[in-house]
Design brief:
Elements (H helix, E strand, L loop, with lengths): L2 E2 L2 E2 L9 H14 L1 E8 L4 E9 L17 H6 L7 E3 L3 H14 L5 H24 L3 E3 L1 H13 L7
Parallel strand pairs: 5-6
Antiparallel strand pairs: 1-2, 3-4
Amino acid sequence: MPTHDGLVDWDSPASWDAATAVETIARLAEQGKADVPVYSIGADRRVATRPFEVTGSPLFVAEGIFAAEIVEECRRRGLLAGAYALRRPRGTTFLRRLTRDLAEQRKAPKVLIRRGVALLRAEPAVLRRQTGLGAEAARAREILRRVAGMVAGHPHRSS
């Protein structure tokens, strides 16, 4: 696992298994179900898998900081309806991340604040990277409108 300041760097794409993510998305798209990993940020590792189903859904959303890393491959395999990088005020992202991480006790508060400030500063570069990998920058309301339009225009899967 990649490290930063002596800690596992969960914000690095190298901490993620992109090939397995694409295969899981393919299984979900084709079969409607797959086992997905469960990570423990506090323990710095994957701790289990759990079944996940989207059977009957016309679309599903795969989200996360590394989603843009697999846009090209998902597009190539015909698995992609849309790819978006959420654009919101950096302060909002910082506060939401910090609130979540403190509530989940992911790390010591001092570590979470220090890392949160670093991510706050890096956010414009992260957005540029995600759009460079094929995601379109958009605000949450616009993304929700587009996804709703895709769902409305899709026949309902019954498998």
